Amino acid sequence: MKRNWLLYPYVVWMILFTVVPILLVFYYSVTVQGGGFSLTMAHYARVFEPLYMSVIWRSIQLALVSTIACFILGYPVAMILANSPDKQQFSLIVLFVVPMWMNFLARTYAWLSIMENNGIINAFLGLIGVGPLSLLYNAGAVVLGMVYNYVPFMVFPIYTVLRKLDPSLIEAAEDLGANPVRSFLKVTFPLSLPGVLSGVTMVFMPSVTTFAISQLLGGGQFTLIGNLIEQQYLRTYDWGFGSALSIILMIIILISMGLMSRSNVYEEGGLI
Amino acid sequence: MDSKVKKFFKVILSASVVVLLLISSGCGGSRQTLNVFNWGDYIDPQVLKDFEEEFDIRVVYEEFDTNEDMYVKIANNSGKYDVAIPSDYMIKRMINEDMLIPIDLSMISNYGGIEERHKRLPFDEDNQYSVPYMWGTVGILYNTTMVDEEVDSWDILWDSKYEKQIFMINSMRDSIGITLKRLGYSLNTKNEREILAARDALLEQKPLVLSYVGDEMKDKMVAGEAALTVAWSGDAAVCISENEDLAYVIPEEGSNIWVDSMVIPKTAQNVEAAHQFINFLCRPEVGLMNAEYIEYASPIGAVREQLPEEVTGDIAFYPGVDDLQNSEVFEDLSDTLEIYDRVWTEVLAR
Lengths: 272, 350
Known about the structure:
The structure holds two protein chains of two kinds. Chain A is mainly α. Chain A has a domain at 66-222: Orthogonal Bundle (MetI-like fold), CATH 1.10.3720.10. Helix content of chain A is 77%, strand content 0%. Chain A is globular, with a radius of gyration of 23 Å. Chain B has helices spanning 3-26, 45-55, 67-75, 88-96, 172-182, 192-205, 217-222, 233-242, 271-281, 284-294, 301-306, 309-312, 337-349, and strands at residues 32-39, 57-64, 83-84, 100-101, 131-143, 166-169, 209-213, 228-232, 246-249, 256-262, 264-265, 328-329. Chain B has three domains: 1-26; 32-135 and 259-322, Periplasmic binding protein-like II (D-Maltodextrin-Binding Protein, domain 2), CATH 3.40.190.10; 136-257 and 328-349, Periplasmic binding protein-like II (D-Maltodextrin-Binding Protein, domain 2, 3-Layer(aba) Sandwich), CATH 3.40.190.10. Chain B starts with a helix and ends with a helix. In chain B, the strands form three sheets. In chain B, strands 5, 6, 7, 8, 9, 10 and 12 form a seven-stranded mixed sheet that branches. In chain B, strands 2-1-3 form a three-stranded parallel sheet. A two-stranded antiparallel ribbon of chain B has the order 4-11. The radius of gyration of chain B is 23 Å and the shape is globular. By secondary structure, chain B is of the alpha/beta class.
């Protein structure tokens, strides 16, 4: 009984700040702006024009590339973290968390001055007679920004799972004659999949919706679906189209999460 | 929870309660407040302090990035502002949509000090709703060490010689506007064919553009990150004072003359203080402080006379009426706005 009572504030919170806004967004997406209650599907029809489909496709592509890069970078880090002695582990985790205390926009701005034509990297390259290379305002810069910002979201879920892994399982594999590579592939990795999947979700979602990173590091040339939505809301004041885009984006995310949860590994936990 | 941690939180909590009490008692009493909504970095902060002191009114100051941003906030009633400072075409739109209160000029005793050429402008022909704050132009800011030739035309922004050395501003009206000017059309055109021609030109230019920038343009131009950019005159002046290699020019095809003016939205809570504030900003000495701080051109005659000759003599920053014959003030586009919106979305998205 007591537990139920504690739940109410959360339910009220959810209704006010999650359900109602989503309903409002849906309402805007199917009505004519300033036209009272007249229904329209025009906003959705516009989403499916080739121009905007290419933007959505580009967002998904960049988000996938960043997610894979985060996985490749994050998994070994999570393993190193999980296998290091307890005392070290704590300080390593602090090192990972401290940058996240800073506002992510400030950190992304920092990359601007690191990578610009007269920036730190090019100044260094100039000393050894290379460059200047144009590092900013391309797809690589956007992916770098995403990976840099979101890699902790990949590391921590995997780390949590790996840490809970019973070492006797690996010992058993080794006793049965498996070499380290084989015991990793057959035991450690399959058991860490729940962590990997929640990491993938937590990196993919912010990557596919970001607008600040692509605006700053992509120089406004890599319009992603997030930029498109921001532009509709704040600049062109076409809330109907912006809302239709948001709903489509939500559907994309739901589908991708649905696909992943079908693989059943969620049941074993691992979400943090 | 660990008892030490608990104690720590208790201390923090009680400390913040004390601070809160102090703050709320500080601003209690009958002191009036005035809510001002202005562009970012667009006033000398000392001016606000002086006003607070002289009139005993607390100023709550908020900033916006674009006219559209400001419009959305006021239209949705999400902020109750007593004074806002939007630009020409947006003022027209707000007048058309009945969002503004007429300004009682009898309460603006300094209004006479504003030069005649800045009154009765097309967006407010009867001087009913707006009092000019600052004005300027849109032009090309360029780095003379990177550009050898003489810059006098928008065409240079389409010159492949400067591939990836060009900044455009991420502002719909300005970017489409200068493109229309380059093509010889009016920047207020409602002819769809002309707007689509501008779209094609912008798409053709896109591979040459390094970035579509906002306010960060100033730092980047000063640092020599790009050779050429579209810029507002005052921003250009700020950049030039920090890097002497930069120069600003209004191209021959003509450009946009803009006027940012003070208005009182319908949602204002303190109309009297709003008038006092507007009148205060029209004082020559206050106008001078602002003009020196933000480096845009002031519409107040006395300010212009007190500024150094090298500033007011430069036709790039204080152009005469004759220097601006090809240039236009933005007008509200009403229904055509939709086509502009679409074109700009398309240019950025492709």
